[in-house]
Queue: 2 jobs
Job 1
Amino acid sequence: MTGRLVVVGLGPGDSRYLTPEAQSMLAAAEVVFGYGPYLDRLPSQPNQQRFSSDNREERARAAAALGWAAAGANVALVSGGDPGVFAMAAVVCQEIESGPAAWRDLDVVFVPGVTAMLAVAARIGAPLGQDFCAISLSDNLKPWDLIERRLDAAASAGLVIALYNPISRARPWQLGAALERLRIHLPATTPVVLGRAVGRSDERIAATTLDTVDPAAADMATLIIVGSAQTRMIDRPGRPPLIYTPRSATGAPT
Ligand code: SAH
């Protein structure tokens, strides 16, 4: 019998965001690989082996999961959010491309999950209501000047921008530099949303503007949405504001 590798997205937080497909794939798995805190979120299951690993050991984790599947096991590899968004699905593909030829023969399935930008957007209205993009601010895997060029291009094209991996202890200045860069292109009043740990008990959502947003208000668990010049904020008495980007655009670039 040949094994199988299922790359599963857990969504942003608690089990409400776990799709029925992800749930049944996880229940069927004999072996589960993942970053420790993600494994902790899963209901315990008898006779299921679990291997937690450090977040930085992505390639080794993908290779180990493929190795178990090649040996005949039904293996799940979990990612927060969606596995295809700045996460393990691409690492698995890379390992298959560069690994033993037998791995190309494996049954590999990718199960989507709710990615952080969609969960944050849903908390505040419809900031992604029109054209948008997602940029990771991590310069571990790409040079900072490429990130700056992408920020310039996205903002000047009028795209709403979702910023993943905004800040960490090892990358303390990048978010401030990115916001400075965006201020060159966008009005000071451009709405900005900070969504922290969405879907978890310590969730926090804040709406602010590009001129006042404080990089220190973000951490590794924060997803930031920077609007375009067309993004609007509706104040509401006694309720949080709604932020949305109208579905129609004028011909002007921003
Ligand atoms: N695959 C994940 C993203 C991994 S990159 C997904 O699809 O969501 C890690 C980054 O995702 C974090 O630095 C943060 O920017 C964002 N993120 C992940 N979970 C989040 C959550 N629950 N709330 C807010 N942002 C989150």
Job 2
Amino acid sequence: MRLFTAIELSDEMKKAAIKILHDLKESGVTGNYTSVQNLHLTLCFIGELPDSKPVEEALSTVKFKPFKLDYTGIGHFGDLLYAETRGGQGINNLANDIRKALDAAGIDYDRKKFTPHITLIRKSAGKAGKIAIPDASMMVKKVSLMRSDNVKGKMVYKEIFHI
Ligand code: 2AM
């Protein structure tokens, strides 16, 4: 199974993301828009493993203090458009501690530099005009272990464990 750890968005943060997506569409940006149920912030991408139990055990050793998350703007990696977020030292410590716990358990993961982001559009084209960034925030109190499945060509993400 394909695994990753993520922050699932509160309703307020989701609503705000929907508004951003709507405004991007209005300003003529095309591409593969993330479906509302798939909006999330990836903390660590693990990839294919036959069993999630070792990851669950490793994650159980991670302790973190709740921290505030909000939107700060729109950014892009090439043609991938994302919502930039701010989670302060809390989110960086959390991502780091997850990596350390996976290292201690001998579980491999994507070691790319952690850049907190919420993917909004893949293969985007066109200019995002002036997009207002909604004043939404949430307290992050939970980290989800997600399973990603390709169901009839669509990615379906499901929480299978959380801390
Ligand atoms: P994203 O965070 O840029 O949107 C499930 O595939 C999630 O893990 C997606 O959100 C995806 O991209 C993220 N992810 C991070 N690194 C990945 C990788 N090497 N391969 C696939 N997905 C990855």
